Amino acid sequence: MSISITPPARERIHQFLAQTPEAVGVRFGVKRTGCSGFAYVVDLADAARPDDRTLDVDGIRLIVDAKSLPMVDGTVIDFRRQGLNAAFVFHNPNATGECGCGESFTVG
Length: 108
Description:
By secondary structure, the chain is of the alpha/beta class.
């Protein structure tokens, strides 16, 4: 299992964690949605669940649920600012397609 976090994403995640000290880490996974099938979920985690896998990625505790693992393995999490917009960006080698707006992706 391999997930990477770029320095800009790591900095942004540390900012979120500093604002919420009760968080045990960052939950990363996917959910069914969008026009292509799946969307990424990134949120602060208040606890790990029994079926979660916990990874230490550059000092960040990343919590991934078992169903998301095969779909996010190898993903690079980045954070980009463009003008007034800022967002996490995901480079996923498992994605076989994305919708036009970039909000959802297809696997398989």
